[in-house]
Each structure stands twice: as C-alpha cells, then as structure tokens.
Specification:
Order of helices and strands: EEEEE
Strand order of the largest sheet: 1-2-3
Distance between the termini: 25 Å
Structural class: mainly beta
Largest sheet: 3 strands, antiparallel
Shape: globular
Radius of gyration: 12 Å
Number of domains: 1
Length: 60
C-alpha cells in the first residue's frame, strides 16, 4: 500500500524513494502515484506552512 498525503490546499502527494550517493535512501513527494512506496518506520510527515509541501522527517 503506497503512502499518500493530502495537504491543506487539497492536493494529494505520493511518497517515493531513490538511492542517493553512498547508498542512502532519499524520500520525496510527487503528484504521480506510479512507483509510490510506504512510509518507513521511524519517519513522520510534516507540511511546510507557507507552501503546503509535505516533507519526510525522522521522529525524535
């Protein structure tokens, strides 16, 4: 089941991941549902107050 997030403006974003340098996983949101992934354990979604863009952040 892919993770989706609807922001305060009503736009739905889907979570994606890719491999960065050194093998680190990078998570980002896109409006395209194809290839979306689940929200990994230990992460949470926050929304930028000004732009409404969602971001993934590690829980503390």
């Amino acid at each position: 089941m892919a993770f989706s997030y609807t922001n305060k403006k009503g736009i739905t974003f889907w979570l994606h991941e890719r491999e960065g340098r050194g093998g680190a996983k990078l998570y980002y949101f896109s409006k395209d549902p194809e290839g979306a992934v689940d929200l990994p354990e230990g992460f949470e979604v926050i929304e930028n107050e000004k732009t409404g863009l969602p971001m993934v952040k590690k829980r503390q």
